[in-house]
TrEMBL record:
<keyword id="KW-0346">Stress response</keyword>
<dbReference type="GO" id="GO:0051082">
    <property type="term" value="F:unfolded protein binding"/>
</dbReference>
<dbReference type="InterPro" id="IPR001404">
    <property type="entry name" value="Hsp90_fam"/>
</dbReference>
<dbReference type="InterPro" id="IPR020575">
    <property type="entry name" value="Hsp90_N"/>
</dbReference>
<feature type="compositionally biased region" description="Acidic residues">
    <location>
        <begin position="208"/>
        <end position="221"/>
    </location>
</feature>
<feature type="binding site">
    <location>
        <position position="165"/>
    </location>
    <ligand>
        <name>ATP</name>
    </ligand>
</feature>
<dbReference type="Pfam" id="PF13589">
    <property type="entry name" value="HATPase_c_3"/>
</dbReference>
<feature type="binding site">
    <location>
        <position position="81"/>
    </location>
    <ligand>
        <name>ATP</name>
    </ligand>
</feature>
<keyword id="KW-0143">Chaperone</keyword>
<dbReference type="GO" id="GO:0016887">
    <property type="term" value="F:ATP hydrolysis activity"/>
</dbReference>
<dbReference type="Pfam" id="PF00183">
    <property type="entry name" value="HSP90"/>
</dbReference>
<feature type="binding site">
    <location>
        <position position="31"/>
    </location>
    <ligand>
        <name>ATP</name>
    </ligand>
</feature>
<comment type="similarity">
    <text>Belongs to the heat shock protein 90 family.</text>
</comment>
<dbReference type="InterPro" id="IPR020568">
    <property type="entry name" value="Ribosomal_Su5_D2-typ_SF"/>
</dbReference>
<dbReference type="InterPro" id="IPR036890">
    <property type="entry name" value="HATPase_C_sf"/>
</dbReference>
<keyword id="KW-0963">Cytoplasm</keyword>
<dbReference type="GO" id="GO:0140662">
    <property type="term" value="F:ATP-dependent protein folding chaperone"/>
</dbReference>
Length: 628
């Protein structure tokens, strides 16, 4: 068995870094500013421990553009490097000074970098990279290092008064957009918005107004305030973001203000959850519940993921449960495993733990809101219900917690937990199989007539009018023992809750056959016809839809499949005991009038469910006018 060392050709490293290391070219700026932040953090740590002597109060990081020279400079006032350190860290790819520092000062340092590759992202946009640096160490000389994107480099003395480092990018011809102020400011706001040290990008004009006193003449209008414009530093970032603070020190207005900072055009959130954990992993953040107005088609990717205040991504589906991707806000954790370019998550057991923790915290917050102020919670339910139902459908652990605060709303606008609703319908809506039957409507306005007919029998009707409700019903039936859901139009009112009661039919067999034939002709191919002995007060004709087939069709549509694979299944039920059936059909001698009356009663049933076409509605009105 022979042993050896794998050979890496250094001339091939730079093309690989340039093309494959980072998913987006623009990430170079995040990496270089993060390095500047690390250098500043290192010096702050050493100063705090008494190992660096001097005045290091100015921790500003400058971003400088020189269009004429074609350069972009990232300047820090951090720890700097000696010539030996430049040779060690810049001339050896993937050797991280940050990691060495963390290993030595792990209890005191908050360092971003770990892989030792971020600096080389500069070559994605630059033909030449120049580094001018001076160590904080007493008597250290400034050093200049130059590389043109190949294994060769130059190193020598330089002029620099203060400690710290300038990374000067000589921007390549195909990356000239990075010499535009708007482009750089946009990237700084995206990636560096919450870094812990001030990031200065030139200056900006601040406008203030000063009251001017009038001359004292009676009746004279008050002079316009004096406009004062002042040039001030353009500090890009918020160095002390809200999620880093203790919840006890914050007010509701603080949270709302931070939400406006994150989403200037967004509606105010309903409420929020402040995440703060240090064991078994470190994680902080704030999750906001936005108003959704009953819609599921929300803009996702609104939660921003940070690692030590450095923006990573807004695609957090690997760390946040699917239903919570509808939330807005920020999550920050140094323990989240990132790929080498810090662009996305890697599979890791910590990710599962964090996902579980976030789910638990959300459930605890919702349960707390429900217990503390149920009335306010119910008022928010039209928006909250989307999150809760989505979570119950998609996350089993969340379902178990959510049964305590998930609500059911009936057509009277009253709310019930699952347990409360079971108790409400137990006496009247238990069928012959000892199952509780929850009756619901998918559209309270359109199905008003059916709802009233059902309520006349003493039944309660729930409202399930959202796209998420179909899978919610399926989930509830699977999870809850002996609980079935039926829609108001899935059967005649007497059959929604199946019992052993039987009604007597008052028509002879011959009369029944006549009625069925007339209605079969009126209905045509639209559905099957059945005669049933309902109450005389029930409608003469009712249209019901097969519950199973309707659900299958709804599920197919939710999955984007062709709904025509499951055609609508209608059944036209004629109430043999309604007086109109006998009066308008059996007691009419003229066959054409009998057929017209049957068509009218059928249209009346369709009208009650708003199923009439324009032509059918006109025919119905014409017929109604004749009968007046």
């Amino acid at each position: 068995m022979q042993k050896g060392n794998i050979s890496v050709q250094t001339e091939n490293i730079f093309p690989i870094i340039k093309k494959f290391l980072y998913s987006d070219q623009e990430i170079f700026l995040r990496e270089l500013v993060s390095n500047a932040t690390d250098a500043t953090s290192k010096l702050a740590t050493l100063a705090r421990k008494g190992e660096a002597k001097g005045d290091y109060t100015d921790k500003t990081i400058d971003i400088l553009i020189d269009k004429e020279a074609g350069t972009l400079t990232i300047r820090d006032r951090g720890i700097g490097m000696t010539e030996e350190e430049v040779k060690k860290y810049l001339n050896q790819v993937a050797l991280s000074s940050a990691q060495e520092f963390v290993d030595k000062y792990q209890d005191d340092a908050s360092i971003i970098g770990h892989f030792g590759l971020g600096f080389y992202s500069a070559f994605m946009v630059a033909d030449k990279v120049e580094v001018v640096t001076k160590s904080y160490q007493e008597g250290a000389a400034a050093v200049r290092w130059i590389c043109e994107g190949d294994p060769s480099y130059e190193i020598g003395e330089a002029e620099r008064e203060m400690q710290g480092t300038d990374v000067i990018l000589h921007v390549s011809e195909d990356s000239k957009q990075y010499l535009e102020e708007d482009e750089i400011e946009g990237l700084l706001l995206k990636y560096c918005r919450f870094l812990p040290y001030p990031i200065r990008f030139g200056t900006k004009t601040e406008t203030t107004y000063e009251e001017v006193e009038g001359t004292g003449e009676e009746g004279e209008e008050k002079p316009e305030p004096k406009k004062i414009e002042t040039e001030v530093d353009n500090i890009i970032n918020n160095t002390d973001p809200l999620w880093k603070k203790a919840p006890a020190d914050l007010t509701d207005e603080d949270y709302k203000s931070f939400y406006r900072e994150l989403y200037p055009m967004g509606e105010p959130p309903m409420f929020w959850i402040h995440l703060n954990i240090d064991y078994p992993f470190n994680l902080t953040g704030i999750l906001y519940f936005p108003k959704v107005s009953g819609k599921l088609e929300l803009q996702r990717n609104k939660i921003q993921l940070y690692s030590n205040q450095v923006y990573v991504t807004d695609n957090v589906s690997d760390i946040v449960p699917e239903f919570l991707t509808l939330l807005h806000g920020v999550i920050d954790s140094p323990d989240i495993p990132l790929n080498v370019s810090r662009s996305y998550l890697q599979a890791d057991t910590n990710v599962k733990k964090i996902t579980g923790y976030i789910t638990k915290k959300v459930a605890e917050k919702l349960n707390s809101l429900f217990k503390e102020d149920r009335e306010a919670y119910e008022a928010k339910w039209p928006d909250l219900g989307v999150f809760v139902k989505y979570g119950m459908v998609s996350e089993e652990k969340f379902y178990d917690r959510a049964t305590k605060f998930a609500l059911l709303e009936n057509t009277e606008g009253k709310f019930f937990t699952l347990e409360e609703y079971r108790e409400r319908i137990k006496e009247n809506q238990t069928d012959k199989y000892d199952r509780l039957v929850a009756i619901y409507t998918a559209d309270a306005d359109r199905q008003h007539t059916l709802i009233e007919s059902v309520r006349d029998r003493g039944y309660d009707v729930l409202k399930f009018e959202h796209a998420i409700d179909a899978p919610t019903i399926q989930t509830l039936e699977q999870k809850e023992e002996k609980l079935n859901f039926v829609r108001v139009d899935s059967a005649t009112p007497d059959q929604l809750v199946q019992k052993d009661e039987e009604q007597e039919i008052f028509l002879s067999e011959e009369e029944q056959e006549t009625v069925k034939q007339v209605f079969t002709a009126a209905v045509g191919n639209a559905g099957s016809v059945e005669l049933k002995p309902l109450s005389a007060q029930d409608a003469p004709v009712q249209i019901v839809r097969n519950e199973f087939m309707r659900r299958m069709k709804e599920m197919q549509m939710m999955q984007g499949m062709d709904p025509s694979m499951f055609p609508d299944s209608y059944q036209v039920v004629v109430n043999a005991n309604n007086p109109l059936v006998k009066e308008r059909l059996l007691e009419v001698e003229d066959e054409s009038a009998r057929a017209e009356n049957a068509a009218y009663l059928y249209q009346l049933a369709k009208l009650s469910q708003q199923m009439l076409s324009g032509a059918e509605l006109k025919a119905f009105i014409d017929r109604s006018l004749k009968m007046m």
